[in-house]
Amino acid sequence: MIAKIKELKFESDYFTLFKLANNCYAAIEKEYTLTGSNTGFVDLGDKIIVFDTFLNLDVAKDLIKAVEEITGKKPDFVINSHFHTDHIVGNQLFDVPIIAMEQTKESIEKYLPETMIKLKALPDDFVEKRREEIKSEQDQDNKKNLENELKFIENLLKHKIEVTPPNKIINENIVIEGKEANADIEIVENAHSLGDIIMKIADQKICFMGDLLFSDQFTWIGSGNPHNLIDITKKLLQEDYEYFIPGHGPISTKKDLKLQLKYLEEILVIAKQRLKENKSIKEIQISDLSAEFQDWDDLVFKWNNNFLETFLKAEE
Ligand SMILES: [Zn+2]
Question: Which has the closest alpha carbon to 100: 30, 198, 190?
């Protein structure tokens, strides 16, 4: 039986550290910080695996410190769950094999340098001016989008980012065997992104999900395929796992997977119906969904509707 989740005493402005079991730890982002996402690590006895590396080098440094303080060891492997910047910026601090799918490597090599070039071209007072703009922005949707974009820009400008793509590519599931436990590294093609990876610690019933799970918020579907996301969510619901570390949001259980599934199924039914009636998918409101979703933030909900407008039309 899994040990009760325990919050650990570890000082970080960016994340709260939880012990999930004998050997599994989750770093859950604190709200309104520059952390970017959740990560975690597992101690297999003779090997430490770090799952994702955040949006910010300061946070990644805290994570390395946490690994060393808690396990007395240094990381041996890093997993990149997928290519999105909020999960991979800390890569450059790890001089160990960084495991990912080919599509993740290609996307990091393509998009991160492009982003860095664009950022370098920004005027010195860009951040300051953008902050002022956000303050006076009346349209709440614009305001949220600008705030989200600024979070990324500020982080990437803050440090000298060296593009560090994964250097150990896997195209099939692998097992990393340790003295005391094994980690199952599973590939999931094109669900949240083109090359997703999850990490399962079977004997502790814990699954590190990357962005295949968003908890207490709408899951972002615009970079992958919602049908495949439904399939993997259903598959995991049938397996014997108890705790799921989402890419964003609190430590989760199957209740959260079910909620994600419910949202995906509902939004697809509503969107397809609107398409049939020649109505815009972009106009769908949260109030069109079930009661559970009414308090969730609408930023990603709107992004998803924009994405579905194109995605479902292309499918017809
Ligand atoms: Zn993502």
Answer: 198
